[in-house]
Amino acid sequence: MGSRLRYGWWPMLLGMFGVVPAVAGVRFEVRAPAGTPPDAVLWISGDVAELGHWNGAGLRLTTSPEGRYVGTVELPPGTAFAFKVTRGDWGTVEKTATGGEIANRPGRASAGEDTIRIEVAAWRDAFEKAPTRTSTITGNVRRHPAFPSRFVDARDVLVWLPPGYDAAPRRRYPVVLMHDGQNVFDGATSFLPGMEWQADETAERLIRAGRIPPCILVAVANSPARREDYTLEVDPRYGGGRSDRYARFLIEELLPFLDRTYRTRTRPEDRTVIGSSLGGLVSLDLGLLHSDVFGRVGSISPAVWWADRAVVTRVTATGHRPVRVWMDIGTAESTPTADGHREWLESAQALRDALVGAGWRVGRDLHYEEIEGAPHNESAWAARFDRVLEWLQAER
Q1: What DSSP character marks residue 266?
Q2: With the CA atoms of 361, 282, 179 and 148 taken in that order, what torsion angle do they form, in degrees rounded to the nearest 10?
Q3: Which distant-in-sequence residues (6+ apart) come within 8 Å of 216 by Cβ?
Q4: What is the pLDDT of residues 96-110, one digit of tens each?
Q5: For residues 44 and 55, what is the distance between their CA atoms, to the nearest angstrom?
Q6: How far apart are CA 393 and CA 120, in angstroms?
Q7: Any idea what DSSP says for residue 362?
Q8: What is the torsional sign of CA 68, 72, 77, 81?
Q9: Which one of 14, 166, 182, 335 has the minimum C-beta count within 10 Å?
Q10: Which of 123, 118, 132 is nearest to 100 (CA)?
Q11: What is the rounded end-to-end Cα distance, in angstroms, of the chain?
Q12: Within the chain, which residues score under 50 in pLDDT?
């Protein structure tokens, strides 16, 4: 009864008075195939934040008394989305009965509750082992696995050294620190197979062409607590809210280690921090709150919408900082709702306006760009990373 009151009756009652509800419920009912492990947890993974942005998980389903897997997600009315069913990762994604690929399943949130019923024919791991992925790392890379911390979970750190590093023992280099490090250098560890930033190849090409000065790239892997690490505030929908601890890890533990181990420059203008999505959000916060450490910020496709655009309020309260900021957003990063609202794009525009209002100057210490048709994934970010790196590393 509670579910019907929440999703089934109240939208109709509101509609009688001309009120459009802010959210609509989409209920999933999944029938799993024979042979599904009895302790399996099923997930709906899709292309919107509420479904995990294709992270292999997203919305966790629970088992109903009838033995089906059920769950409900709230979305703005009119939101179109695509999804698949998994058991928590892409190695266990749903397949056809003969092991073939299935197309992304479509869905749309309407004003009332919609129920989407799915029959999973088979799971990927019933037919094949996940293919071995070949490493695509290039250049002089040093590995620091399971780097320990008092503040956050241990994680791998990869350090890419520029051409000529070993041959110039007296030279020191600026540092570019990048979040979601699994996606930065290596298609074998990237979130989606083969979709990596190609930061190592791009940096080497720019350095050899004289378009940027030689620099050290540091790829810092995420952890299962990614939302917590990359967000300062708790979002009532998703949790999070511990990036102050992640900042302490970077500033008090990782940077001192890098400075002891490698020939780094340590002025704020010689330290750049770059990330995408929630990584773009935490990059901006690191610049705002620790401008004495990080003087250059790459905020790529930032999740400005997090916690009711809290970062926009923070920019206004904090005011201008001596930090150079690259910020961009793809126009295809959020599916329009029925009324044309696009949360990612409009939130990025609000952040741009707040930065300008606080004193950042477009073309001087702020670059803002909307990339027509660009989606929210590593391939799109790789396609523009050369311009990001060149603008941030340019001497000014």
Answers
A1: -
A2: 140
A3: 159, 160, 161, 162, 165, 173, 174, 175, 176, 258, 262, 264
A4: 988 888 889 999 888
A5: 10
A6: 49
A7: B
A8: negative
A9: 166
A10: 123
A11: 64
A12: 1-18
Structure tokens at 192: 């989606």
- Residue type at 128 in one-letter notation: E
Contact 185, 141 (CB under 8 A): yes
Q: What is the dihedral of CA 49, 54, 60, 66, to 10 degrees?
A: 120
Among 134, 187, 140, 177, residue whose Cα is nearest residue 157: 177
Structure tokens belonging to residue 367: 């670059």
The type of residue at 236 is: P
Quote the tokens at residue 388.
């990001």
What's the whole-model pTM score? 0.74
Amino acid identity for residue 136 in this structure = T
Query: How far apart (Å, rounded) are the C-alpha atoms in residues 3 and 5?
Result: 5
Q: CA of 316: how far to CAs of 26, 139, 201, 319, 351, in Å?
A: 36, 42, 37, 5, 10
Token reading at 284: 């901006």
Contact 322, 294 (CB under 8 A): no
For 217, residues 6+ apart whose C-beta sits below 8 A from its C-beta are 159, 160, 176, 178, 184, 185, 199, 200, 203
What token pair was written down for 62?
Answer: 């629970």
CA atoms in the 13 A half-sphere facing the CB of 344? 28
Q: pLDDT, tens digit, for every residue of 176-185?
A: 999 999 999 9
